[in-house]
Amino acid sequence: MLVKVYGSAIFGVESKLITVEVNIDNGVGYHLVGLPDSAIKESNFRISAALKNVGYKIPGKKITINMAPADLQKEGSAYDLSIAIGILAASEQIKTDHLDRYIIMGELSLDGSLRPIKGALPIAIQAKLDGFDGFILPKENANEASVVQGLKVYGIENIKTLIDFLNDEAELEPHRVDIESEFNQLVENYPYDFSDVKGQENVKRAMEIAAAGGHNIILIGPPGSGKTMLAKRIASILPPMSIEESLETTKIHSVAGKLPKNGLITIRPFSSPHHSVSDVALVGGGSYPQPGEISLAHNGVLFLDELPEFKRSVLEVMRQPLEDREVTISRAKFTVTYPASFMLVASMNPSPSGYFADDPKNTSSLAEMQRYMNRISGPLLDRIDLHIEVNPVPFDDLSKERNGEKSATIRARVLKARQLQIDRYEGLNIHYNAQIGTKELDKFCSLDEQSKNLIKIAMERLNLSARAYDRILRVARTIADLDNAENINSTHIAEAIQYRSLDRDQWG
Question: I need a labelling partner for 499 at 20 to 30 A (CA). Which of 6, 254, 400, 507 fits?
Fold first, then answer.
């Protein structure tokens, strides 16, 4: 008897329908075809033990299983449940009336219980588009998949529960989640607040500008000056995620198997890879491509602490994603694209010894300092909009009892500036100032004569590149938005130039 059970395969952050065809005929043998990987080939051992432990068995006949389309590589153990149900249905141990209505996915344990799978959210989205009534999957993934409205999601703990359901011996209740209440409850749940930071008002101002315009920023200062503390708090002043952004980010984390227990990403992600990270771990890839750290930071913050300690090749592969806001990974047989629209926050010491050249504690020569700075290429530095010196906090600021400004207060100003940008760029597929293209700069960042003269002098004295010129205009546009000014003036340009003071020719 031939039976078809439906599953799904993940490619990038999208899914594709997979039909598991099971045919049982006279003879002996177990044949699994359709480009399965090792985890799928081993599934017969898990399935055999699981079925035996719930009172069923694999029949002693010739079993042929085809995973169609047969020319696409399948990977992972999530097809265990699909194959097991197909074998039971083809051997007439269970009814087949409802199989064409559901996507069925799950990894089997030897006792018949189910383990969670990766990519439940994109699978659920595609199942709805393909017209399926429901999605049957492990209970741990039910919250995540239930985010998709209009699709019945059944979370089960054991294959026996599913067998009884298909045999009309038991009912399954669809899992429901109120996405708006879940989202609103968790969207303000930030673990860090700017009120914890004493002093550093100039750095807070720069970070407010970065958050308001979505600009990349680098903090340069000695150990203990508060670089990491400040960086960890920048997500708390970014605008709250919209439901659309939340779903897009959740989809990436779902594919990577890194979702929280509630199954929904509601606060902007903060990714902080160690400096020993490899190229593939940062941008994504592998034999079976997976999202990298920059995609896990999509719609959030990527923090690179001690930037010069990262391998040169790792830093260079970020150049294209910083411009295009996506990562394309090409293999011989397929190409996948992962979103990577993140805000880069980096930190570093000004020298190998950790201190500025004029600090008495500095033991590095100017040549050593220059070699240290040269670990970061000029093209990568050009893509960072704001360069900020972070000096140690004076004792008087540390000893003050009064806390600094709360993140909520700063975020209110950021939101106001972001709303101006949303209104200005309506219909242009631009969401904030850092995304302004070269074509739009003349229209939205026009300068008066005084501002033009000021930026001309800065370009000549600092030997800035054309890309740095564009970045200054974008930052000035954000400063003007924070001032609620319609046009950029010389004050905004002067402040924006100040944040380029650590460009290549000035270091060391």
Answer: 400
